[in-house]
Design a protein that fits this description.
The complex is a heterodimer of chains A (269) and B (338).
Chain A: H1 2-5, E1 10-19, E2 22-32, E3 37-42, H2 48-55, E4 63-68, E5 71-73, H3 78-83, E6 86-89, H4 101-105, H5 125-138, H6 155-169, E7 173-177, H7 185-200, E8 204-208, H8 212-218, E9 221-226, E10 229-235, H9 241-249
Parallel strand pairs in A: 3-8, 3-9, 6-7, 7-8
Antiparallel strand pairs in A: 1-2, 1-4, 4-5, 9-10
Chain B: H1 12-21, H2 23-41, H3 49-74, H4 82-98, H5 107-134, H6 139-158, H7 169-176, E1 179-180, E2 183-184, H8 185-203, H9 205-215, H10 217-222, H11 227-253, H12 264-274, H13 286-305, H14 312-337
Antiparallel strand pairs in B: 1-2
Helix pairs in contact in B: 2-13, 3-8, 3-9, 3-11, 3-12, 3-13, 4-5, 4-6, 4-11, 5-6, 5-11, 7-11, 8-9, 9-11, 12-13, 13-14
Classes of the chains: A alpha/beta (269), B mainly alpha (338).
């Protein structure tokens, strides 16, 4: 019975990606369920970024398969992934600093005026601003003015804009690449609080992080990547920093990789 | 251009803040100061109806070019080729006109000439846009090469001499010298172009994507904006407006002036930058460009009226230009530190 309930929302099997002679992914697996926070950890060069880029549609894998909600998918670019409810908060936030928060929230998905103006794709700025204010309020973020350029906001506020954009449009998965790396203690706490809140809405949050205490405090599960493969998967509650570091560095390799889950559901070739 | 029509009127200070944040406000203050100075220095002589008309006619072609350049610079690009593209488009139209009736050519020929000028300009611009968008060559070099090549082709076609019979009398008498309710058609045309592309830039998706690409091209790409295709469109638009500039030039002066457009690029880029458009991309407006075009125009006329050598205008504009970019640079730095 529990096996049925744990039908994964996003699952990847045997992903392969090489750049020239570099084998970034060598048969990597990944599993994420609805309403959980999964931390993806690994040493530098373990293939985290490549895996996230493949799963969010930024790059196409050379081999392997991805299923979303049980259906096999092949993302044709990040926009395609977004259309299927998969959003990404990039480490550099990917904001246009000269545009205001509302315009950034709707960048590439603008709302337009109706009626005779519709053929001209005239922006409906009031509607976008209204929606932006709501989106920020929902995250518990107070932006005094959604009409100032994002460049004029603080680092934490900019982070909120990027997160709010992902949350506003994500229906299934949000990838967050090092979302707290550039933040102070207070802002870091706020972002983690946001991560939990988003998870509670039934969206899956995949967190890429180097910060082990943070990973253990916010994640429900931890997947460990090493040399382009998933080498372990832990319940955050049952593991320790030592165990995670051991899996990352390979010092646990002689032990059986017991916790690696769901080896054989599905079965399509 | 208003930011929030729903604000209660009591928030006047807020409006002042918003206004001072806009680059156009400062540039407009400079323009107003210049006009005030010359009006006081030469009472009754400056700003006569004749002056205003003359200033507007002289500025109209630069305004049309400046509108296109505003888009290009907002994408963090540059187009040095506009003067040469204008000449090439003018020569192409002129060659057709010479062989289809010359100065006495009919309206049909005029229409074909207009289409040729616009087409040549747009095609040349699109070609440069493709190279900028897909190649690894910076816009500065692509359009520097395009500047030489376009002028070269125009000189090959004409042997370097401005051909006679280049313009039909119909075109000169209508667009060139004609007036609508006392306003020269050239000015009306420039105003319409400015208004349309100002609105497109400020209120539509096309404009929004133009800003986004100049602000952060990687973010624009990730947001699904077709960056390369958009850049091709922007450079093609610049070329199209250079072609329109060619039509206006032919109508106004009746000759191709092959040698007369080598500094159009600097004049226009100066106007756009004076108008507050950032060379780093992402910020700017057509309204600012309008003001930026009129500052040198007012300076020239004003200096003549008060009896100072008009060459001081070049000195003054040069100084103001460098100061404007310096200010932009400083603003960018303080903003990024925040």
């Amino acid at each position: 019975m529990p096996v049925v309930e744990r039908e994964p929302l996003l699952s990847a099997r045997g992903l392969v990606k090489h750049f020239g002679h570099v084998q970034a992914l060598q048969g990597a697996d990944f599993t994420a369920h609805r309403g959980e926070v999964v931390a993806l950890i690994g040493d530098n060069g373990a293939g985290k970024s490549t895996l996230v880029n493949v799963l969010s549609g930024v790059i196409a894998p050379d081999g392997g398969e991805i299923t979303l909600d049980g259906r096999p998918v092949r993302f044709n670019g990040p926009m395609d992934a977004q259309r299927q409810g998969v959003e990404t908060v990039y480490q550099d936030l990917s904001l246009a600093p000269d545009l205001d928060a509302a315009a950034n929230l709707y960048l590439g998905r603008e709302l337009f005026r109706g009626g005779v103006l519709r053929p001209f794709s005239v922006l409906d700025r009031p509607a976008m601003r209204l929606a932006a204010v709501e989106a920020f309020a929902e995250l518990g973020v107070s932006l005094k003015d959604v009409t100032v350029p994002v460049a004029a906001l603080s680092g934490g506020q900019r982070q909120s804009v990027a997160v709010a954009r992902a949350v506003a449009f994500a229906r299934s998965v949000i990838f967050m690449d090092e979302p707290t790396a550039a933040l102070g203690v207070v802002q870091r706490g706020r972002v983690l609080e946001t991560v939990r809140r988003v998870r509670d809405r039934g969206v899956c949050v995949v967190l890429i992080s180097h910060n082990m205490p943070e990973v253990l405090s916010v994640a429900d599960r931890v997947e460990v990547l090493r040399l382009g493969r998933r080498v372990a998967s832990f319940n955050a509650a049952d593991t320790s920093i030592e165990e995670l570091v051991g899996a990352m560095t390979g010092s646990l390799d002689d032990r059986p990789a017991a916790a690696t889950d769901d080896g054989d559901e599905g079965g399509a070739p | 251009m208003t930011r929030d029509p729903a604000r209660p009127p009591a928030r006047l200070t807020r409006w002042a803040v918003v206004l001072s944040r806009r680059n156009e406000a400062w540039t407009f203050a400079i323009l107003a100061a210049l006009v005030a100075f010359f009006s006081i220095a030469a009472p009754g002589k400056f700003l006569t109806v004749y002056d205003i008309t003359q200033i507007a006619v002289n500025a109209s072609i630069y305004l049309v070019l400046g509108v296109g350049m505003t888009y290009v610079i907002i994408t963090a690009g540059i187009d040095l080729s506009i003067g040469s593209v204008l000449v090439l488009a003018a020569v192409a139209a002129a060659e057709y006109n010479i062989h289809h009736g010359g100065a006495a050519a009919g309206w049909g020929t005029v229409a074909v000439c207009v289409v040729i000028a616009l087409g040549v300009g747009a095609a040349w611009g699109a070609l440069q846009g493709v190279l900028v968008a897909t190649g690894r060559v910076p816009a500065l070099i692509v359009t520097l090469g395009g500047m030489g090549a376009a002028l070269g082709l125009a000189e090959i076609a004409t042997g370097g001499e401005d051909p006679s019979g280049a313009v039909a009398g119909h075109l000169q008498n209508s667009l060139g010298y004609g007036k609508l309710l006392g306003i020269p058609w050239l000015v009306v045309l420039a105003a319409v172009v400015t208004l349309v592309f100002g609105l497109v830039l400020g209120t539509t998706r096309f404009g929004n994507h133009t800003f986004a690409i100049g602000s952060n091209p990687a973010a624009a790409r990730r947001a699904g904006i077709p960056v390369a295709r958009h850049l091709v469109k922007v450079y093609a638009l610049m070329g199209l407006l250079a072609g329109l500039g060619a039509v206006m030039w032919l109508a106004s002066y009746g000759t191709t002036s092959i040698a007369g457009h080598s500094t159009d690029n600097l004049t226009v880029i100066t106007a756009v930058v004076l108008g507050g458009t950032s060379l780093f991309g992402g910020r700017g407006s057509v309204l600012g460009t309008v003001i930026g075009v009129f500052i040198p125009a007012v300076l020239t006329t004003g200096l003549i009226v008060i009896g100072v050598q008009q060459y001081w205008q070049d000195v003054a504009v040069g100084v103001v230009l460098v100061a404007a970019v310096q200010l932009d640079q400083m603003r960018k730095q303080t903003r990024e530190r925040a």
